[in-house]
Structure formats: C-alpha cells, structure tokens
Amino acid sequence: MIKRILLISLIASLGIGLTSFVKSEFELAKHLDIYYSLVKEVLINYVDEVDPGELIEHSITGMLKELDPYTNYIPENDIENIRLLTTGEYGGIGAVYRQREGINYIVEPYENSPASKAGLRPGDIVLSVDGRSIDGMSPDELSEIFQGQPGTKITLTIRRPGETELLTKELIREKIETKSVPYHGILENGIAYMNLSSFTTKAHQEIFAAIKELEKEQDLNGIIIDVRNNPGGLLMEAVKIVNLFVPKGQEVVSTKGKVEIHHHTYLTPVEPHNLEVPVAVLINSQSASASEIVSGALQDLDRAVVIGERSFGKGLVQQNRDLSYNAKLKITTAKYYIPSGRCIQAVDYSLRDENGRIASIPDSLMKEFTTKNGRKVYDGGGIMPDLEVKNENLSELGTKLYLRDIIFDFATQYYLQHDTILPPKSFTITDSDYQDFIAFVKEQSFDFTRETEKALAELKEMAQEDQLYDRFAKSFDQLAEDLKPNLEEELMYYRAELTDLIQTEIIFRYFGTSGQIEYSLQEDKVVQEALKTLSDSAHYQTILGNNP
Q1: Are 185 and 210 in contact (CB under 8 A)?
Q2: Alpha-carbon torsion (508, 509, 514, 515), positive or negative
Q3: Which 3 state secondary structure label does DSSP give 480?
Q4: What tens digit of pLDDT does each residue of 177-221 get?
Q5: Which helix (H) or strand (E) covers residue 195, if one does?
Q6: Cα 342 to Cα 336: distance, rounded to the nearest angstrom
Q7: CA distance 18 to 534
Q8: Which amino acids are annotated catalytic?
C-alpha cells in the first residue's frame, strides 16, 4: 500500500494525470496476466522445445518495433556495444572485420592498436581464435570473442592472400579509443577542414584540439566541419561544439516530452573560442541527430553556412533506462527543437496507415520558421542546406563491384605487390594497373546484370501472362540484345569512376582513414563549394542575411 501511494505521488510529480495512470495500470496488469498465461501454455504444450528467454526477447523486440526504430531492448551481453557508441572506448584488438559468404576477414586494423602492432592487414582471413574454429560464427559472435578485458591474450590463426603458409598472431587486448575526428588539416587560403565522424564523449575535445593545432600553423580564415555520414551521438557534445562559435548562455537545443522531467533547455556553458571566423558545415542524407543539432543550430543562429544535401531528419531524443538483470532499455523520451523553434524530425511514427506503413512528412505540411536574421527555414524534414550541392552517385557497375568486394580484393592484391606508393595527393594507378583490374574482374566470374535487364525480364513475363509476347517477341529479343552489357566495354566506359574507387581503396591500405580522406577531398564538390564560399566574405555574409 505504501509503495502504491509513493508511486502515485511520483506519477503526479511527473505531470501524468492520475486518472490516466490508473486506467493504464489496469490495462497493463490485465494484458501482462494474459501474456504470462499465453507464454506458459506455449512452453508446456507447443510441439517442439522452446527457449523461454529467446521467445520473450523476440516478443520484446516485436513490441518495440511498433514504437520507433530507436527504442530498443539491450540485453546484458550487448552493453559493451552501447559503451563503445557513447564513449568511443572498448577493450579489444582494435580492428574492423567483415563477413563474406561465411568467411571472416580484416577490413581495417586501427592505428597503434594490438591488431596493427601484430601486423594484421586488410584482407587477412581469420580462421580460428585460441585454437577454436570460427566457421559458422556470426559477426556478433566474433565481436564478443575479439573484445575483452585489456591485458588479456588472444591468438589468431590467419590466411593471408598471396601466401601459402598459415600465420599465427598473438595479441594482447588493449583499451581501444576510436577517434571522433579522424582527419583535420588546412586546405587552402588558411581554411581549415575537420572531419567529425561521431559524437562520443571526446568529440568536442578533439574538435577544439584540432582547431588549436591548426591555429599554431597560421591564422584561420575559415573552418569547415564535415558531418556527412555522421549518425549522431551525445547531445551535450553537439552543444559544446556549437559553443565554440557562439556566445555563452545561447540556447542551442531544447527537448520536450510527454513527461515534464524530459523538458530541458541546453545553453552554451562557457565563453566561445571564436565568434568571427567564418564557418561552413557539410551535411548529407546520412547526417542525423547530433549532426543536425550542430548544423541546424548554427544555421538558425546565422553563424554558419550549411552546404550539401538535406539531412536525415532525426529529431528524437533517447535515454538509457536500467532494467532487471543488468539489461537496459534505450527509449525515446522527447523531441528536440533548435533555436528557431523548429523540430527537424522527418517521420511521425505515431501515424501509420492501415498496412502499418509510416510516411515522411510531406513538404506541403512543413511549417515556416525564421533564423536570427529572419531567413526562412522549415521543420519536419531534416536540415535543408543553404547551398545545395550533390556529389554524383555511383554507377550501377561501380556499386556492384564495390559491394561484391572486388575492388577491396584488387587493392589487397596490389598491396601485396607494392611495398610503397606516393602520398595520397600524388598517387594514381597506371594504364597497366587498370588493365590488371579488368583482368582481375574477369577472373572473379563477375556477372553484371543491369536493373533494366531485370525489368525487361519481368515485362516479358507480364506480356506472356497477357498473351501479348508472341506479337512483340522480335522487339523483346532486340531490346534484350541491345541492353546486354559487354563487361570490358563497361569497365572502360566507367574508367574514371572506378579508378577513383580503386585509388581510394589502395591509399587506405598504406595511409589509413586519414590518407583516404585527404585523397577524397581533392575532387569533393561539396568541399570545393565550401572553400569558394568561405573565401568570398561578401557572398558568405549575404547567405547569412548579414550586410556585407
């Protein structure tokens, strides 16, 4: 009775109506009783043996799918992954690995990690761990084996492409710290560039340290912050990064939920680093959450020009709540709103059609807001850039060669045959190298079937069902012949695109992520637009609505 009174008092303090709570409590008790009875009947009477833990976990996952993609149940054995996402730290060997057709291979050993120190290379195939075969293991199972307490030993047996003898590598797990800023440097005209790939607990520190380092080299005439493909992370890290360029006490973001305890306003906590330096933020369709707080807040405050493509549109805030047996619930508790008052959430998960499908908010229903200088901005669809610039999409051929790891494997072969290459900005493959690539693709029995060919096959089936095929058989055959690709011709036609992909992958072998980014910046249209904008003060100020 006392517990119930305390619970009712707590509910009242949270701002939830008592009548609503009592009704919800009854419904909860009723359906949990039904659920328990149902599970018990399944466990007792179902024809096959059922794992109760697995059954319940599936039902929890299914229930949470009815809410939104970000509300998730986290069992105890997945807690380490959550810590990695928030802190960027974990205990392990420090390598990215991937599974292809049941084969587990190394994609990237992190710089100065146990994997790097042991001499692991991209393309190395892991056969066993501590003498135990890993055949049939999922990537998640392998992850659990590679991770562990710092100081513990692990022995890998690997097969290296190009070598006949198996290799044994002994590694000592260490505390691994992934970087939020994998690359920074000065591009031209005193304009600094920094790639911000995540919002972990050290994101702000790394950005600030990068700026201070570059300022020692020369006075900065502009700063480019690249959050393309950055899925977000810790909200306060976004607030602190915005704080580098706006005054203390400025509202950056506020959150509003159903319960009052989730209503918060986040102000910049300290004096800024620089209020004058021109800033550009680069975004694309995969920039989400904290990335949108940084780009959206700086846009609303007219403190930065946002360049690229419309962002993802994730304006939902999650918190981790403790559950029994060391499990957790990551639950959406609020929506966030940037300084203009807009929420950039692109999807309303509470609105579904009769088939359960969720639709994005149409442009016609977006509401207009204004920035500090009175520029028009809109809610409901992510952050719209001030300057829209789209990088060209890969061709269908390039996409399939990349996803099939044929470019990855060719780079591995190239790495085995060349001890060194020129620096990232100078490296190019030769005509002979590209001919080697064409031969390599042919050796892989690569079957290149265009989507248009698949569509034609479907059309033929429809024509046969409608008894029309015989009338147009010659036309179908001629079109099929015209669409049939000649692989070598296609590889030559898309040579420029494929050469870029090959060079990017080869540079990664020798210079890691930082070298790969340095190389990619040379032909990056979004970066080039940012450089052009930051170099033209009048143009920059006009975009922001300031009088030049």
Answers
A1: no
A2: negative
A3: helix
A4: 889 999 999 999 999 999 999 999 899 999 999 999 999 999 999
A5: strand 191-195
A6: 9
A7: 56
A8: 289, 300, 314
